[in-house]
Amino acid sequence: SNVVALRAHRPITMTSLLGASPTSVVLTPRASVRASAPSAARLPRAETASRRPPGRQSFRLRAVDADDEVAVVEASPEEAAEVAEAMSSVDDVPDAIKTVPKAAVERDLGKEVESRRTFAIISHPDAGKTTLTEKLLYYGGAIQEAGAVRARRGAKSATSDWMEMEKQRGISISSTALSFAYKNFTLNLLDTPGHADFSEDTYRTVSAADNAVMLIDSAKGLEPQTRKLFEVCRLNGLPIFTFCNKMDRPALEPLELLDQIESEFNLPTYAVNWPIGSGDTFKGVYHRPRREVHLFNAEAKDGKAKKGEDKSTKGLEVISVDDAKLESVIGAELHARLMEDIELLDELGGELDLQAVHDGELTPVFFGSGMNNFGVQLFLDSFLGYSVRPRGRDLLGGDRVEPTDEGFTGFVFKLQANMDPRHRDKVAFVRVVSGRFERGMRVTNARTKKSVALSRPSQMFGQDKTVLDEGFAGDVIGLNNPGSFAIGDTLYMGPRKVLPPIPTFSPELFAYLRNSDTGKYKQFQKGVQELLGEGAVQVMYSRDAVKQDPILAAVGQLQFEVVQARMLAEYGVETTLEPLPFAVARWVVGGWDAVDAAGRIFNAQCVKDIWGQPVLLFKNQWNVDQIVADTPEIGELSPFSIPPAAE
To answer: Could you tell me the pLDDT band of residue 162, with boundaries at 50, 70 and 90?
Structure first.
């Protein structure tokens, strides 16, 4: 294809191209260009649409400025011809129209990986996780109005809480991926359910992250679910960043919060900023790296922004901690206390050890209020500098794959059905681990060993999807999933690569799911296949061929309620649950051979999981210990299962 390279000495836009005196230009039909450069200057969508009627071929002009920075702009055939005509008068470039190699228009893999940040937010329910997520999206320019999580009609719902049940109850019950750009970075935010009943979904989501943000309610300190999720992050070796939220309400002393983290998690802390007061006396935060105080005027923030005023910084005032007027602004008492706190913090340690942060041995701590925008943007800016880029991962067999390796590798960490209520879609969330993803590429599924064409990839933003042409390590991609993928599947190009599978943990509640209306048998079966294939709950089946109803296995009761609500809302099927008297599940590591060797098994029911593997259900742990002691033929019993992807 013909490509045109242009040298200019000014910012590159379509207007500047037409008015420049270039040294070289080339034209490329848009379909043949793989991607624009990260700093691509584009025409506004509305302007582009008005200049280029539907059905007409569009071009992209690749331009190189005086500093050898590449930019790409869209152009209509007339605009492209005008630039080409301008090139015909250039004497020192006899070969103005020439072929440019593929590498010249491809984005640099190393730079793209360096600009990615993938992180999950974890917290106990009601700590303000989804509200903080909305504020981060707002500061990133991804949404125009930040929604709060409120269980009431009429309130703007949060972008990450798109299910009807989430909107009604005001809780997060499904993990969500949200991708947005901020300050030359591409951020992939993984919003996780805070409720304990969905801890397995959270575990799978955290496995796709490179960093974790631990959100703490400053009034309550560490809570049970926060402790559980912290251990999940530690198991995955993630750097952990702590945000102490709701400082605009009466809160625990900052030092007490730090002490809780250090004593309970055995994790040293470093306060990057420090609160000035709390509750009604909360005046803002002191930012240690720059020795400046970020003050906030709640009344000014609540007012309407004037034309041209930046809403994200409205009402915010930044002054040096050494400024003489600080005492009069925050009051003598708060000022004196702040000076004492600063002296104490400096004695505890003046420099942040980034290597210790990246190794998960130190957590930077921030204070603020997600609801009122205290310290949120300051946290986001600091996070970009402190967090790690996409990391390499170990493969089964002892090898390792790095994010800058050329060959594409990714894994499925989540399945979601019916994200678009207008279509019975099923989306597989894939985390890109290495290399470059391109729309239409063919990859191999390590579990099925089948080749799959990824023809309809999407970039995820909550419930919304946009077509994605290219992705890099760290990105989360949505793939149309007509049954080709399962949670934990490794997708790769080139030599066979298999990432460690995502385990399934022991549930505690079990019940048969029954169809109340026999006339809706097909809808019931379709709902079971699509919804339960997501992994929202585990599914097991009786060995008795007569009993075909699925056995739902869950960590908490709310998981059952979600399945029933979605079966009714999305498939029009009313269902009932028939509880089973079991509380413990153990997978038979030796498979069906071990079950047959054991003969008759007492005080347990043998069922099969979705992969056909044998599972024993017990009423309590005492029954588990008894069968291990009395029936050694059964062999090892495991509290979690490894799907066939590991083979």
So the answer is: very low
Q: Which of 180-189, 267-276, 312-321 has the highest mean pLDDT?
A: 267-276
**pLDDT of the residue at 337:** 93
Q: Are 288 and 271 in contact (CB under 8 A)?
A: yes
Q: How far is CA 118 from CA 105, 215, 238, 387, 592, in A?
A: 26, 16, 11, 9, 41
**Tokens representing 75?**
């152009």
Q: Within 10 Å of residue 391's Cβ, how many Cβ atoms? A: 18
Give how far Cα 350 sits from Cα of 308, 340, 343, Å: 39, 15, 10
User: What would the DSSP string read from start to end of 264-315?
Assistant: HH---EEESEEEE--GGG--EEEETTTTEEEEE-HHHHHSPPPTT--GGGTT
Are the C-beta atoms of 197 and 554 separated by less than 8 Å? yes
| Residue 401 near residue 431 (C-beta atoms within 8 A) | no
Q: Which of 155, 299, 137 is nearest to 146 (CA)?
A: 137
Q: DSSP letters of 402-447?
A: -TT-SS-EEEEEEEEE-SSTTTT-EEEEEEEEESEEETT-EEEETT
Please, which residues have CB within 8 angstroms of residue 419's CB and are 6 or more apart in sequence? Answer: 162, 425, 427, 463, 465
Gap between the Cα atoms of 186 and 116, Å rounded: 5
Report pLDDT for 51: 37
Tell me which residue of 414, 394, 383 sits closest to 243, measured CA to CA. 383
pLDDT in tens, 294-304: 987 766 555 45
Residue 167's identity, in one-letter code, is K
| DSSP conformational letter for 125 | T
DSSP-derived secondary structure for 513-579:
EEES-GGGHHHHHHHHHHHGGGTSSEEEEESSTT--SPEEEESSHHHHHHHHHHHHHHH---EEEEE
Instruction: Look up residue 72 and give its two tokens.
Output: 């790409």
Closest CA to 337 of 253, 258, 270, 280: 253
Tokens 């008005």 belong to which residue? 50
Per-residue tokens: 460: 């995820």
State how far the alpha carbon of 54 is from the alpha carbons of 50, 127, 558, in Å.
Answer: 9, 48, 49
Residue whose entry in the numeric block shows the structure tokens 């041995």? 361
Q: Which residue has the higher pLDDT, 467 or 294?
A: 294
Do 515 and 575 touch, CB atoms closer than 8 A?
yes
CA atoms within 13 A on the CB side of 375: 28
**H-run or E-run covering 338:** helix 332-348
The torsion region of residue 226 among left (phi > 0), alpha (psi -120 to 50) and beta comes to alpha
Cross-strand bridge partners of residue 182: 185
